[in-house]
Amino acid sequence: MRQCAAVTVTIALRHIKKRFGSQVALDDVSLELGRGERVALVGENGAGKSSLMNVLYGLYGADAGEVAIDGKKVRLRTPADALAHGIGMVHQHFTLVGPLTVAENVVLGREPTKAGLLDLPRAKAEVAATCARFGFVLDVNARVDTLSVGSQQKVEIVKALHRGVSTLILDEPTAVLTPQEADELFAVTRRLSDEGLTVVLISHKLREVLSFATRIAVLRRGKKVAEVTPEESTQASLAALMVGEREAPAAPPASTPGDVVVALAHGACGKLKDVSLEVRAGEVLGIAGVDGNGQRELAAVLTGLSRLDGGTLHLLGSPQPSLTPRAARRLGVAHIPEDRLHHAVVTDFTVAENVALGRQHQAPFAKGPRIDFEGRLSRTTSLLEAHDVRPRAPSLRLGALSGGNQQKLVVARELDANPKLLVAVQPTRGLDLAAVDAVRSRLLDFRAQGGAVVLVSLDLEEVLALSDRVVVLYEGRVTGEFTRGEFDERLIGERMLGVRDA
Amino acid sequence: MLLALLSSVLDAAPAVVFAAVGATLSERAGVVNVGVEGMMRAGAFGAAAAALVMPTPLGVLVGVAAGALVAALHAWLCIQGRSDQVVSGMAINLVMLAFGQFLLEAAFSSPAGTPAITQLPKWFGHSPLTWLAIVLPFVVHLAVTRTPWGLRLRAVGEKPQAVAAMGVRVTRLRFGAVVLSGAFAGLGGAQLSTAVLDHFESHMPSGLGFMAVAAMVFGRWTPLGAAGAALFFAFGDALRISLASSAPGLLEVVPQGVLLALPYALTLLVLSLQRRGAARAPAALGQPYDPELR
Amino acid sequence: MRETARAALPSVASVITSLVVCFLAVAVLRGGLEVALDAFLAMTWGAFGDFPRFFDGGTSAAVLRPLGESATKAAILTLTGLSVAVAFRVGLFNIGAQGQLIVGALAAAVVGAGVELPTALHVALCLLAAAAGGALYALGPALLKRYRGVHEVISTIMLNWVALSLVENWLVTGPLRATTTGDNSIAGTAQIHASAELPRLLGDVSRLNAGILLAIAAAVALWLWLTRFVGGFQWRAVGANPEAARASGVNVGRAFISAMLVSGALAGLAGAVLILGTEQRYPATIGAPYGFDGIAMALIGNGHPLGVLASALLFGGLRAGGTRMQLFGVHKSFPELIQGLALLLVAARLMWMKVSDRLLKPKGGP
Q1: pLDDT in tens, A44-92
Q2: Can you say whether residue A178 is alpha, beta or left, with left for phi > 0 and alpha for psi between -120 and 50 degrees?
Q3: Chain A residues within 8 A (CB-CB) of chain C?
Q4: Taking the CB of residue B76, how many other CB atoms lie within 10 A of it?
Q5: Is C366 among the domain residues?
């Protein structure tokens, strides 16, 4: 791989470092952007792509390193600074005001006036001119919340262009678009870059990266591991660079799968389009996939938080046409949700109260309609001990515990209910290494005792380390299924990225 | 009779019109304002007390300032202190209820009300504030729909992140809107004590602030809608009073209490018949702005 | 203990700050710290028993009469405070306690005057009618919230005025107005039968009636429910984190509705205590904003039933004692100012929390 020399370097990020707590998000990353270039940033979830661009857009302050524009060092502390330097960014989550029109959204904050009044005709004309100049077809009079997602994204881009940016960062722009909208987006953006706009594309979709970018930077675990051109790359070679060479994780002892615990046939719910899968007692089914491909919905369906729009779900052999969270718990479904603070715990409750949550009606937490304080305390005490949750203080407010200890408590609580099925979503995200090991070994213990586990994780390494089988989700459908022994990281990576069979 | 009715509406309505139009400003910016009652009370007292020592028109300005000051407290609690906005508003109401009484005692040693002041002069038979109440809703409508400030105001109540992303200070915008809302409520209160009556009465504004909130909701958070609802409520009230004297027989059939309850019952009915999820209150109403939330 | 202290600190600090500020206000306005001290002492004796006079050889009434007055006021404050607090614990803001109180008071007055029954039974029936009336009146906002997404703050504000207008401007002055006897036309409904009156606790010494016992019992019962029972645990979970509660198998909608019913019933009971204990009929107007005082009690008491009780006892006392401040040129509404200021300070709860977290930071810690 040769280092690509940019034609004229306009923006240089040098030796950027960024930490979030104990996690290193960016580790000495440098990147140069030349005028009119189309640079793609690729990498797995958490590789640091968005973090790097958020530093450039002034949303994150870097811990070390500098940004230079046209050879001069600049300070980008807020998005306003970045905009002033001609840098615009379109986020995955739009910052549009729904009830306002396209024109109003675009001129917001820098409105044309006439005699102190908003000059709406001029605003519309100016925005229409911007749209025309860059080839966007938008009705400037339309309310933004009546537009399709694709059009809303165009409004975001027009907002940046209207401010006269010379560099445009697109963060996963096609995640919410239909293929046709995506093609149109790239056609327009390519033409803009031909006119001199520098474009940075953050994407997981290697096909579009290869067809769009003039240069591709690959990040892995906070480091830039390669810069390549599309001509010298294939989807497979990029996937390999993203995943890297890893030691094969130590395989857990072979499992002896028992009865079918979960049987989902053609399940559909929001982003989940059509997924069929089975999970048996005594096995870990890993769900691999890039964020937002239906994993969240799958977990919600299995735990009763969302209803299926289509398809059928059987739990432990019985059909579940209208599963509620309460019924799911009664059937023996435990849940370690992705967003602990919103869905699993009450931070203003004590540790002991949080342990009771979900089984508040059952022994040892209740005697009839009354709370069994002694039972709750002794169970909590033994759980804290067994799972090494610190401090061992059942009456402490949960919010006073560290994130790792909160998560250990959630795992302890969920496994303590003697479930038949555990749905674990990102169970180790944000934990330190010791806590990660603790949580992972708990999951494997549960499996060894005959429990069924559905493990959803964005970290492929984790999925491969723990799973007996892996199902790959891409755009709400199963694009691959692998059994331990035939795990092929490269192939799984390709399936996650929607690489079609050759 | 119709003329007399119209005339009494012109006297009764302005206080609620001012307060309701003001309330839309605060809520369109995303800050709940159930403290209108307290802000009106501050305005009513401030105006009457000041008018004892200065010309009444200047007293009205003092009332406006008093309303704005109380609103600034609300804004500070909600925006800087991130307090629950309903709690803060109700606290404002209760404090002003007690504080007004306390000041009456402390300054005038009379629990019922202040001494009489010179009323505002009449222009064409009504106080200047009446004519202002006809003009002001249109001015505010224009400001909200046709100025950069209005555009930002509407945006900040829907999606503060969008406004912040374009380099506008969310907290400053909201603070200003709440203070302005209090100034309007203060003006409404001042109208009660300097134009409708000629003194501050201990119970003022006796629920008109809550009626203003109802009018704002009824008018779907728009200045003209709120003003229209306030007028409608005032008309109903004037009709009730006029019927009581002119056609007491009718009140046997439709009792006064039922007519009094009507504005509130109607507002509730409209709210409950609205389609769920239909655009009504500003999307970010009641939520403190968190710059880190996207 | 640390958690209790952490939760209670903002309230205690607010009340103390408010007392100090108001003390200084009196000192400034009435010429000196000594006057202020005398006025505050007079208020204290008037609230919690005139001990100086008692030890000077006065009768026990010197202590009991003020206490009785305080407890009478505290009973209603406690019940409306609990009403607001219980809704608060599931995350709802019931501003409608005033309207529910009016409906409950009317129900108690009608049943108290309309039927004849043996004493205990009659009182019980009146209380039941009041609780049911208040609960039904609170059901509307709960259902509108659950099924139509109407914010409970707006709907309860509207219903307050609907109740006030319908009851005080129509029913009480119209269909339910007491029939005149002789020349005396009485405003309000007919006098309730003696069998419906709440028993007096101190005989002729004070108006104190069994309402305070009811209020204390309600506070203790609610406290036990919230802390000792699984159902109360679920309500608290809904109030603190509805998403987590739902994921834990709690029916959030049902918790909203049942808590609102209890809230309305408590406000209705407050109305009943007012009628059966003090007024003996629904008067021309109830006048005082008891429901809004309930908001103050609930917030100063931090939503905790015993905190509400404590706050109601304190402010009930200050109100009863406030009349004695008139001797020092301070109006009897002064305690309401103390209460309002305390509430305003409590509204800045998050700021107090920062202070308390700094003060109570665990040493070492995890």
Answers
A1: 777 888 889 988 988 788 889 999 998 899 988 888 888 889 999 888 7
A2: beta
A3: 303, 305, 324-326, 329-330, 335, 337, 342-350, 353, 356-358, 360-361, 365-366, 369-371, 390-391, 395-397, 400-402, 405
A4: 16
A5: no
Distance CA B148, CA C185 (A): 62
A273, A439, C108, C111, C146 from C134: Cα distances, Å: 49, 51, 11, 14, 19
Residues in chain A: 502
Token pair of C114 as six digits:
């309309």
The architecture (CATH level 2) of A258-332+419-502 comes to: 3-Layer(aba) Sandwich (3.40)
Query: Do C219 and C78 contact (CB within 8 A), yes or no?
Result: yes
How far is B282 from chain A, CA to nearest CA, in Å? Answer: 9
**CB–CB of C249 and A349 under 8 A?**
no
Write down the ipTM of this complex: 0.85
Q: Cα–Cα distance between C98 and C104 in angstroms, integer?
A: 10
- Write down the H helix ranges in C30-171: 33-48, 51-55, 61-89, 97-114, 119-143, 152-166
Parent domain of B146:
2-273
Per-residue pLDDT tens over the stretch A350-362 = 999 999 999 998 8
- Which tokens sit at A391? 């401090």
In A195-232, where does DSSP find H-type helix?
A: 206-212
Shortest CB distance from A100 goes to which of B146, B154, B165?
A: B154
Protein fold of A9-243? Rossmann fold (3.40.50)
Cα distances (angstroms) measured from residue C79 to each of A170, C11, C87, C103, C168: 58, 19, 13, 15, 22
Cα gap B158→B151, rounded to integer Å: 11
Residues B284 and B159 sit within 8 Å (Cβ to Cβ): yes
3-class secondary structure, A225? strand
List the domain range (segments joined by +) for residue C78.
2-176+189-359
- Which amino acid makes up residue C148? R
The runs of H, that is alpha helices, within B52-108 are: 56-75, 85-103
- Name the 3-class secondary structure at C21: helix
Contacts of C231 (CB under 8 A, 6+ apart): A369, C225
* B266 contact partners, CB below 8 Å, separation of at least 6: B218
Number of structural domains (chain C) is 1
Predicted confidence (pLDDT) per residue in A258-298, tens digit: 889 999 999 999 889 999 999 999 999 999 988 888 898 99
Residue C272 lies in a domain: yes
The identity of residue A402, as a single letter, is S
- What parts of chain A have a pLDDT lower than 70? 1-9, 21-23, 176, 245-255, 430, 432-433, 500-502
Domain harbouring C266, CATH code: 1.10.3470
What is the domain-level CATH number for residue B73? 1.10.3470
A485 to A248, A249, A501: CA distances (angstroms): 11, 12, 21
Torsion C161-C165-C166-C168 (CA) sign: positive
Q: Does C323 touch chain B (CB under 8 A)?
A: no
Size of chain C in residues: 366
Contact list in A for residue B151 (CB cut-off 8 A) is 100, 104, 107-108, 111, 118
Which chains border C (3 or more CB–CB pairs < 8 Å)?
A: A, B
Contact A100 B161 (CB under 8 A): no
Residue B49 maps to a domain: yes
Measured between CB atoms, does A126 come within 8 Å of chain B? Answer: no
User: CB distance from C366 to chain A under 8 Å?
Assistant: yes
Strand partners, A262: A279, A315
Domain count across chain B: 1
- CB atoms under 10 Å from CB of A400, counted, come to 20
Rounded to the nearest angstrom, the minimum Cα separation between B56 and chain C is 26
For residue B283, tell me if it sits in a domain: no
